[in-house]
Amino acid sequence: MNTGNKTRDMVLAAIFVALIIIMAFTPFGYIPLGFMNATIIHVPVIIGAIILGPKYGGFLGMIFGLTSLWKNTNMPNATSFVFSPFVKMGEYGGNLGSLIICMVPRILIGIVAYYVFRGVLKALKGSKMKTTVALAAAGVAGSLTNTLLVMNLIYFLFGKEYGQAAKGLTEGIYSVIIGIICMNGIPEAIVAGILTVAITQALFKVMRN
Q1: DSSP code per residue over 95-123
Q2: Does the structure show a pLDDT above 90 at 82?
Q3: Which of 20, 113, 117, 124 is 20 to 30 A from 44 in CA distance terms?
Q4: CA 125, CA 81: separation in Å to the nearest integer?
Q5: How many Å apart are CA 74 and CA 64, to the nearest integer?
């Protein structure tokens, strides 16, 4: 890679970092769907990974994770202890597991999205719709990577504590996890797929010109 391409990639990465930070701390990171809000903060991570590659994708995911850590530490809610080891809410407190939940799924968002994009492109070689389908698949896969890993790690690392803090439950906690995945995760994945296609195709055109 020549110096010009490296400089371009660093500039693009800085723009994606700025977008992630702005979206994380403003209402722009959320889309109201009537019964819930769908977050789209992971979309710049997905798009950045597709354009810049998996290493940048992992880096952008780390930035997303750090914004979540800061927000849950400094503006905590009843379940923020599952995302921050520095938070204690009543009898429940965060620990090393909180960092795993906060960081690992977010780092993997871009990495998974990149390889899904490349894999679908290869599988649909020769198809006129291959780029559109690959972008949509990458958006959905990146979003679900975040939702599925975060919610399942919460269950395995903080199941009882999360159930008590979130719903006052001691049983049926995984049913709550499944409900959140279905009610939040699926709409978020659909939104991420649509936005990834629309925004990335526009960026591809700009970059080609």
Answers
A1: -HHHHHHHHHHHHHHHHHHHHHHHHHHHH
A2: yes
A3: 124
A4: 46
A5: 16
Q: What CATH topology corresponds to 3-208?
A: Arp2/3 complex 21 kDa subunit ARPC3 (1.10.1760)
Query: Does residue 98 surpass a pLDDT of 90?
Result: yes
Mapped onto helix, strand or coil, the DSSP state of residue 32 is strand
Task: Classify residue 104 by burial, with Cβ atoms within 10 Å: 0-12, 13-18, 19+.
Answer: middle
3-class secondary structure, 48: helix
- Spatial neighbors of 138 by CB under 8 A, at least 6 apart, are 46, 49, 50, 113, 114, 116, 117, 120, 196
- Strand, coil or helix: what is 88? strand
Which pLDDT tens digit goes with each residue over 145-198? 999 999 999 999 999 999 888 777 778 889 989 998 998 899 999 999 999 999
Question: Distance (Å, rounded) from C-alpha 139 to C-alpha 43?
Answer: 7
How many whole angstroms separate alpha carbon 49 and alpha carbon 144? 15
Nearest to 130 by CA among 119, 146, 144: 119
Both structure tokens of 71 = 């927000």
| The pLDDT of residue 99 is above 60 | yes
Give me the residue spans of the domains in the chain: 3-208
